[in-house]
Amino acid sequence: MLRILRQILRTGVVSEAPPTEGLALEDDSERIQRAILAHLGRALAIREVDAGSCNGCELEIHALNNPYYNLEGLGIRFVASPRHADLLLVTGPVARNMEVALRRTYEATPDPKLVVAVGDCACDGGIFGESYACRGRVANVLPVDVTIPGCPPPPIEILKGILTAVRRVPARTAR
Amino acid sequence: MGTLRGLHLEVATLAAGPPRFRAHGSRDAWSVLARDVVANGGRLVSLWASDRRPLGEGYAVNAAYALAEGLLWVSLPLAADQQGYPDLAALFPAASRLQRMMRDLHGLEALGAEDTRPRLQHGHWPADLHPLRHDARADAGVADPGGEAYAFVPVRGEGVHEIAVGPVHAGIIEPGHFRFSVVGEKVLRLEERLGYKHKGIAARFETLAPLDAHRLAGRVSGDSTVAYSYAYCMALESAWRQSAPPRAEWLRALALERERVANHLGDLGALGNDAALGFGLAQFSRLKEDWLRVNAALTGHRLLMDYVVPGGVAREPDASLLAALPGQHAALRDALVPLADIYSSHAGLQDRFVTTGRVTPALAGALGLTGLAARASGHAVDLRAWHPTPPYTALGVRVATERNGDVAARVAVRFAELTESLRLLDGLVAGLPDGPSHLPLAPRAGCAEGIGWIEGWRGEVLVALELDDAGALRRCHCHDPSWHNWPLLEHAVMGNIVPDFPLINKSFNLSYAGVDL
After folding, report:
1. Is the peptide bond prior to A112 cis by the omega test (within 30 degrees of 0)?
2. Contact of B407 with B376, CB cutoff 8 Å
C-alpha cells in the first residue's frame, strides 16, 4: 500500500487543460462542466459502439480515458449499456454483419440522443468504402449529429467533437 | 530447386528476407505434406485460397507452414470444376476456422471437415455469393436483413444455462459474440462467434495499386499497423525482387518495437484494471500516452500508421528527436521498476492472476498457440530470434518465456518483453546505419508473388500477395496470429468463473478485426 501511495505522490497530477480551440464558450474545465450541465442536466454518459473499425479508433478512445485528458473530471463517462447513454460514439465503416446490432443499440438508447461518428471510416467509409460486406459511413445507417475525421483522430479531437455534439442539445430551462 | 528435411517435395527458395520456400503439390501431396510437417515439429501458419481462373487455371488452396528451416508456402491447384480439397483440421485444429472462411469467400469445401458452419457469412449477403471469385456480383445487396440462426453447440445437464454476450460488448471493445454454458458461476464451455466486422478487405485489395495497398494492410488490425504494413512491404519487395535500404530496415524495426511497447503498456494497465487495481490503469495509460506523443513527433502519427511504406519508411526522423530517444527509453525503464514491483507483490492482483485462464504447454502445442500467449505457455517461438532478419541479426533477441500459461504468465512475458524491447530500441538508435531511409520501388510487370512474415507484438503476422500480368494486385491475404489463439481462449476459460472471463480475455488481447477481415 505504501508503495502505491508513494508512486501516486511521485507521479503527481498530470491532467492537462481541456481544449479551447474551436469551442467559443468552454475555456476551462469548470465551464465545460457547466455547459454539460446546462445542456443535459447531469454528467454525459457515452456508449461506444464499434461497427466495424480496424480497432485504431478504439485505441484513441481508450487514450481519452487516461489521466492526461481527465475525462471524468469534465463530467463525461463511458457506460456499459445503451440504456444508460445520452450519446453513441460510433467507429468504423458499418459492416453489414454489424448493421442490425448498431440499429438495435440506437433503438435501445433513450431519447433525446446524440450520435457522433468517430474516424474517417465512420465519416465517409474511409479506405474500406461500400461493398457486399460494408455499408460505408455511419450516416448511411443512423442519423449522425457530429463527425470527427481522422485516421484515427487523436484523443483531443474526439473530445472536441463530443463537446460540439453536447452543445447541439438545446440548453435546458429551469425545471 | 531443393528439398527440405523430412518433406517429400521440391521447393524453390525465395529471395531476401527471412528464409522462405515455395512449392506446388498435388492433392495427395497436400495431406502427406501436412503429416510430414507435424512429424517434423512444424506448425501451420495460415491457409487461404485464390481464384486463378482468369489465368486459365482453376482455384488454388494455399498453406504456409513454419518449419525449422523457415516458412514454406505451398499451393494445391484445383481444377475449376473441382471445388473440394482435403481437410487439414484433423492435424491442425486452427485450420478449421480458416477453412470455413475459405468456404465463405471462395466457395471451396474442405472434404471431410467436421465443422462446416459459415463463419463470415452471417446471412447479410446472398448465400450463393462467394465474394472472392472474380466473377462474383459486385452489386450484391442484403439477402436477409434478419441474418441467419447459428448452430451453437448446446451443453445439456442439470443446472446448465447459457449466457449470451455481444456482439456489442459492455466496454470500448471490438464486437463479437460469446456464448457461455455455465453451472452457477463456473464456465463449462465458451463458444465464440466472430465475423461481425467483416468488411471485405481481401476484395478491396484487388482495387488498390500495389504501391498504395500498404495503407489497407496497415488497417487490417489497427493495433498492429506496423507489423502488417511491414509484412505487406516485405511481400511486395520480395515479389518485385527489390529491397529497402539498410537504414529503412532499422527504422522499420524501431517502429515495430515501439508498437510492441505501446501495446504492452496498454495491456498491463488494462489487466490491472480488470483485476480491480485502477491505479495500474492510471499509471500505465499515462506512460503509454507519453510514448504515443513521441511516436507522433517522430513519425507524424501516434499509432505509427502509414510509416512503413514500400521501399522504406515515410519520413526520416528528426536528428534531435532520435538523439533524445535513449533518454525516453531510460525514463520508461525506470518507471517500470516500481510498477513491476507493485504488480508482483500486490496480493489482490496476484490472487486474480495466478492459475487463472491456464493453457498448459501441452495444450498450447497440440492446438497451435502462437506469439506472446505461446511464449507464456512454454513455447519459445519468436521470429525475431528464430529466423532473424536485419537488424535483429545484429542485435540478438532474447526470447521471454514462462511455463505456467496463466494470466500471471502472460503479464510476466509482457513485462519481460518491455525490458527487452527497450534494450533493442537503444541498440537500434545507436547502430542506425547512414544512408537513405527510402528508395522508390520500380513497379515490375509480369505475374509475381511474394510473402512477408513479421513478429508483431501479438505474434506472427503474414501477408501473401499475387500480382497479375499488368502488375496489379490479384490477391492479397493478410493473416493475424489471433486465428490460432481465439480457439485457445475457449479452452483457457473452461472451469474458471464467469467474472474472470474479461481478465482472461484481456490477457490474450486478441484481434477481432484481424480475423474478421
Report:
1. yes
2. no
ipTM of model: 0.93
Any idea what the CATH number is for the domain that residue B242 is in?
1.10.645.10
In a domain, B278, yes or no: yes
CATH number of A26-167: 3.40.50.12280
Number of domains in chain B: 2
Of the three residues B131, B148, B174, the one that is the final residue of a domain is: B131
Contacting residues of B for A68, CB less than 8 Å apart: 286, 289
Residues B470-508 pLDDT 10s: 889 999 999 999 999 999 999 999 999 999 999 999 999
Q: DSSP string covering B184-210, please?
A: TTEEEEEEEE--TT---HHHHHTTS-T
Q: Which of B124, B170, B511 faces A81 most closely, judged by CB atoms?
A: B170
Q: Is B340 among the domain residues?
A: yes
| Residue A72 contacts B, CB cutoff 8 Å | no
Query: Are B222 and A55 within 8 A, CB to CB?
Result: yes
Among the listed residues B491, B302, B123, the one whose alpha carbon sits nearest the alpha carbon of residue A57: B302
Same domain, B290 and B370: yes
Higher pLDDT, B211 or B10: B211
Instruction: Tell me which residue range forms the domain holding B287.
Output: 201-515
Which residue in the set A6, A56, A80 is minimally distant from B171, CB to CB? Answer: A80
Task: Say whether A51 and B175 touch across the interface (CB within 8 A).
Answer: yes
| Contact A132/B at CB under 8 A | yes
pLDDT in the model for residue B125: 85
